[in-house]
Amino acid sequence: MTPLSYIELKLCQAQAKIFEASIAKAHYSSPIFIRRFTYSSIAKSFDEKVFLYRSDSIEDIFNILDEEFGESQYGEIKYSPDQMFWIGYIYRCICIKYNLSSKSVYKLFNAKEIIKYYNIFHTFDIVDAAERMMESINYDNSSNQEKAYKVAKRLFYTEKLKDLLGKKVKVSIDRPIGYEHNGIIYPLNHGYIKEIKAPDNKYQDAYVLGIDKPVKNFEGKVVAIINRKNDIEDKLVVCEENKDYSKEEIKKAVNFQEKYFKSKIILANHQTNQ
Questions:
Q1: Is 187 exposed, middle or buried (0-12, 13-18, 19+ CB in 10 A)?
Q2: How high is the pLDDT of residue 270?
Q3: Residue with more model confidence, 30 or 154
Q4: Is pLDDT above 70 for 271?
Q5: pTM of the full predicted structure?
Q6: CB 246 within 8 A of CB 253
Q7: Which CATH fold topology does 147-267 show?
Q8: From CA 122, how far away is CA 259, in angstroms rounded?
Q9: Burial profile 15-31: b = 16 or more Cβ within 10 angstroms, e = fewer
Q10: What is the CA angle 55-61-64, rounded to 5?
Q11: How far apart are the first and last CA of the chain?
Q12: In the list 15, 83, 97, 119, which could disulfide-bond 79, CB 3.0-4.6 Å?
């Protein structure tokens, strides 16, 4: 998917700043603000790409919201400024890239669900995050030919990874044991394999099992593939050459992260418990 244009970036940034300002300006909860905004005339002006030509101040915007929906002090849940900035940004990015209205995007990712996606994708490139989110709900507005190509490409990628089962690889660790990311403490080493490119054009990710201390590099065999159904990339599972793991053992080890995805575990043919 192509990057955002200059004007599209400005629209995303403007909406993100309004969402961020809601922490101080809105006297109601963040979920209520998100719902109100996406159904407002302000959001419609973003949809029509005319907001940048308006002269409304931040105060004006929140006064307009109060006029349209009434003043309120309902709800206590407040997301953080960083969370709200990202939510405003990603909503607008999805609207732009998929030619959808604010209301439509809200129906796909409501206020209570969107915060879960922040925890997973807020460190991603924003367009990449938007694409992955839409794939996670199996949204596809492409032509039949494009759909067939995407399916074929995804199958080819997974089949290519299957050729690695039982083979040795070198993993560069970027998230060692104890690494904290979005409040999640990594209980195992996680890294990437430089020799393999994933569909997102980045290095192939891999979990390392059986090592109980942080390491910088690891060489071992590929014991399994975590075939994600709602992501464009699978994960490899690597361990020491003299070890094997069952599906249940692997699932338990990687659940701290994989619980956010729909997936199945593919083992090497010689392994048991398939």
A1: middle
A2: 53
A3: 30
A4: no
A5: 0.61
A6: no
A7: Inorganic Pyrophosphatase (3.90.80)
A8: 17
A9: bbebbbbbbeebebbbb
A10: 115
A11: 37
A12: 83
Cα–Cα distance between 149 and 137 in angstroms, integer?
Answer: 19
C-alpha 237/C-alpha 189 separation (Å) is 11
Q: Hey, which bits of the chain come out as E strands?
A: 168-175, 180-181, 184-185, 189-197, 203-208, 217-228, 235-239, 263-267
**Alpha-carbon gap, residue 31 to 28, rounded angstroms:** 9
d(CA 3, CA 229): 25
Residues making up the chain, counted from first to last:
274
- For tokens 């940048």, name the residue: 52
Average of per-residue pLDDT values in the chain: 92
* Residue 92 binned pLDDT confidence (cut-offs 50, 70, 90): very high
User: Residue 252 pLDDT > 90, yes or no?
Assistant: yes
State how far the Cα of 100 lies from the Cα of 248, in Å rounded to an integer.
41
d(CA 92, CA 97): 9
